[in-house]
Amino acid sequence: MTTDHSNSRLQRAIDAAGEIDGALRAFNHRPSGYPAAGDSSGALAGVPVAVKDLIDTADMPTTYGSKIFLGNQPKKDAWIVTRLREAGAVIFGKTVTTEFAWRDPGATVNPWNAAHSPGGSSSGSAAAVGAGIVDIALGTQTVGSVIRPASYCGAVGYKPTYGLIPTEGVHALAPTLDHLGFITSDFRWAAICHEVVIKGRAFDAGLSASFVQGVKPRKIGVYRSSQWAQVEPEVQQNFDAVVRRLEAHGVECVEAGLGPDIRELLALTNGVLAYEAHKAIHDDIKDAGDLAGPYTRELVSRGASVSDADYATLIARVEQLRAGRDGLLDGLDAIMTITSPTTALKGLEKTGDASFCAPATLLGLPAVTTPSGVSMDFLPFGVQLIGRADGDLALLQTGQWLSTILPRLKGPAVAVPVA
């Protein structure tokens, strides 16, 4: 990557943010200046990357989306930020998160329609990518906080296999479920993040040249679950259209499951999350009075009612399910499902339903989402692919192939073109 290209990419991001972020409100902090691209080297030299405000940065405030931590300045970068800097990336700014990555939303709006939610908890990261400000943004996912907002904002989302990225320097919500991930403008950037940032190796010329075609799957499992009747008809229709398109391209599509009924998976997720969130957040908010949001206070209160014995039972069940998770994909290249039962919700009070993201998160399996069309209200649809544990690159290659046979979304009207 040449310095000229790096400088122009950074300048385009600066110009785009300057023009639209006053309305979009994806960022809660951007520095007054940036290092010149020639000052860095590496595979991401000069590439602007937005960082979710749940993730520590030594040179920028980190508030975890909470009034309690306004002005908080970490002493060191999170592990993932260090890796980005080592690869030459420019930390472009901190993006808005819901409070402690739970449900109390920030000010960010959806770049496709400012009257709608961008999703959460990685709201600002998804909006910054969806609006075309940056090509890469960091997110976190404890239930659906990478996949769902990426889908709502018309971006690519990539949640790696559980534990693949160290969470050192990231405020915990529920350590058994917490994942770091990426929201990107396309799958190539997601693959670069996997190879360069996570694995610490070069995105070699051979892989780069072949990646644009992706890898066509032979057999895809289709997951609708017992909750399918609660999915909005237009979301169902888009998903079914993707299945038909896969079949038209010679991909075998078969009904598939993800172990127990989705209702059990959601109950496990909610129980573990509540107990661990109480441990992670209670001390942060106990002396804060009304500074914490109502959703945060309710979660911590609910977690206090989960006994140690009940938690131990929940964790034993999670470990049992994770031990058998790869068997769910026997004979399949991936399992495909929706990202959310709805498109982006109208209003900013709620961030949307993450129930269809919960299974992959609970099982610790890698997941990606790609845009799959737009609704009658001109809001993006997305479909989610789930792969084998530690099969992240193969899943990204499948996602890339799928993206080539789906309609390419025209950018939202409020976005500044960043070619």
Kindly describe this structure.
The protein has 419 residues and is α/β, with parallel strands linked by helices. Helices cover 36% and strands 14% of the residues. An eleven-stranded mixed beta sheet has the order 1-3-2-4-6-5-10-11-9-7-8, sandwiched between helices. Helix 8 crosses helix 9 (294-304) and helix 8 (262-285) crosses helix 10 (308-323).
Concise synopsis of the structure shown:
By secondary structure, this protein is of the alpha/beta class. The protein is built from 12 helices and 11 strands.
Work out the radius of gyration. 20 Å
Overall outline: globular
Tell me the major beta sheet.
11 strands, mixed
CATH topology heading: Amidase signature (AS) enzymes
Helix content: 25-40%
CATH H-level superfamily? Amidase signature (AS) domain
Q: What's the number of domains?
A: 1
Arrangement of strands in the largest sheet: 1-3-2-4-6-5-10-11-9-7-8
Topology:
Layout: H1 3-24, E1 27-29, E2 48-52, H2 79-86, E3 90-95, H3 123-130, E4 136-141, H4 147-152, E5 156-159, E6 179-184, H5 187-198, H6 205-211, E7 219-222, H7 233-248, E8 252-255, H8 262-285, H9 294-304, H10 308-323, E9 334-338, H11 358-363, E10 367-374, E11 380-386, H12 392-405
Parallel strand pairs: 2-3, 2-4, 7-8, 7-9
Antiparallel strand pairs: 1-3, 4-6, 5-6, 5-10, 9-11, 10-11
Helix pairs in contact: 5-12, 8-9, 8-10
Question: What attributes characterize this protein structure?
Answer:
Amidase signature (AS) enzymes; disordered C terminus; eleven-stranded mixed beta sheet; alpha/beta; 419 residues
